[in-house]
């Protein structure tokens, strides 16, 4: 089963951080994939990804609107960078592109 991890953060660190997390998680689960999302909001890091979560991930999604803390822990992983607004409004399309990429990689 495909496994996705993501980190969402927005410049203000409030609503869009959490809206993006919910949208990414819902879109991944709609594909039948495992998904865990860490948020880096105004109250700090929540639902922090473990080394095991990251090691088991096929794809890492990072929002690109502001710098992600501890980004070096994803070294060597396939990373998809998206804007917070795309995470909120276009998560299904992002997951479709990831699925196409994964299909090519295993073909």
Helix content: 40-55%
Question: How would you state the average pLDDT, rounded?
Answer: 95
Percentage of residues in DSSP E strands = 15-25%
Q: Which structural class is indicated by helix and strand composition?
A: alpha/beta
Succession of helices and strands: EHEEHEEHH
In CATH's first tier, which class applies?
Alpha Beta
CATH architectural grouping: 3-Layer(aba) Sandwich
Low-confidence stretches: none
| Structural Rg | 13 Å
> Largest sheet, if any?
5 strands, mixed
Distance between the termini: 16 Å
Strand order of the largest sheet: 3-2-1-4-5
CATH H-level homologous superfamily name: Response regulator
How many distinct folded domains? 1
Overall morphology: globular
Helix count from the secondary structure assignment: 4
- Fill in the CATH topology: Rossmann fold
Number of strands: 5
């Amino acid at each position: 089963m495909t496994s996705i991890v993501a980190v969402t953060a927005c410049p203000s660190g409030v609503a869009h951080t959490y809206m993006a997390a919910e949208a990414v998680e819902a879109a991944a689960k709609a594909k039948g994939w495992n998904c865990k999302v860490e948020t880096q909001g105004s109250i700090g890091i929540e639902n922090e990804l473990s080394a095991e979560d990251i090691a088991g991930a096929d794809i890492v999604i990072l929002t690109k609107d502001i710098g992600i803390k501890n980004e070096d822990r994803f070294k060597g992983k396939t990373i998809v960078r998206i804007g917070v607004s795309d995470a909120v409004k276009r998560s299904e399309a992002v997951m479709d592109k990831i699925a196409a990429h994964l299909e090519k990689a295993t073909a």
